[in-house]
Amino acid sequence: MNPVKKGIAGALLSAALFPLAAQAELHGSLETFHAFPFSRDLDLTDSRTAFTGEIAVYAGEAADFVSLSAEYNGVSRDRGGFSLGEAWLGEAWIDWNAGGLRLRLGRQLLSWGAADGLVLTDVVCPQNLTAYAGLDFAGGRLAVDGLKLRYSFPVLAVEALWLPLFTPARLPGDGNPLREIFYPPSVDVGPARIPVSYADPVLPRAAADGEYGLRVSCYTSALDFSFMGFCGWNDIPWISKTVVPSSGSTTIEVTPGYGRTITAGFDAAIPLGEVLLRLETAWTGGGRYDRPPEESAALLSGGYRDDPVEQHNLKLLAGIDWNPSGWSLSAQYYEDLLPGAYRGGTARSWRKTGLTLGIAKAFFREPLDLSAWGYLDLQDFDAAGSVSAAYALTDALSFALGSDFFTGGIDDRGTYAVYKDLSCLWIKGIFRF
Length: 433
Hints:
Strand content: over 45%
Radius of gyration: 23 Å
Distance between the termini: 29 Å
Largest sheet: 19 strands, antiparallel
Structural class: mainly beta
Number of helices: 3
Number of strands: 25
């Protein structure tokens, strides 16, 4: 069923429950956003207007929730359209409680872990990578379709997931300024620059190809912690390259693919007076990484297929949150390791470390909210960050002005080097009802 039909079906099923409901709620928002790049070589990089509506219906121990959104984007055609947000699906869309047992079935957003804006154990919902400007540090997430079963004890909670339908990350399409970052039009093979053609990826479709997860959480007065495991697929496709000779010119065919991954992790939150200490670690098996450029070029020049290298990945994070006198301060230190690539073998270095900083403060009894965050890579010293000011004229109407920036680091080697021309100033207005 396409998203429009799903959305209409969800709205009708929600309406059918209204006569049975003890309570029904309708919320929504209208948002307009526009980004103006600092680079003179680019036009407006984002211009969107979006409507979101939410219907929540409560009937006894069951709850039905549907979120629908429609967006018009004047710059990136791939980001416009109609989408189904969160929906819990039972006989209709349902969230059911019975004692300590809670069941949710349908399309839903799930968040695991303690990291702020960095992906360690929070691997269930894929990322929406079609936008970069004006987002919070965590970025956008896509809802997933499946079953969540949670049982709560006095100090313990066990959560099990089954996602029969695989949802990949959403990548930029035609017209999006991020398109060439994920889909470069050509690659270097020796001294030559060869154009690239992209094949359509083959997505896992069978129910047997579903994703599974388990999380056990413990809550005490001195410590909250959890263990998790998730068997899924890589959300961002890895790519294989093959030289395709033709009568006119040589091209490289890129075939995106998805492979099984397994993630196991741990997170903890420890209150220390006014300070909250957060710890998180995750190990992922089955990840795939590009070969070094010279090795890739040698394979393609020799007529061989260039497949990515499989490596295990270990991530570690320590973070601290402090809220003195109405200020909100946070800092995180991050390690991203490929132990098997210590002696080389991948285009990515075996170790990446980073530091994130965030600060926020509300003024004038909260109508004005100032905030800033930043990420600094401690190897290449590339960086990304944002500063913003939001003012609420009323409870329903607010405006925000902000700036996002990216720097490439030493010799433009860093991850954010490809984003450096996308630094921008943006404005946003939101009406909520």
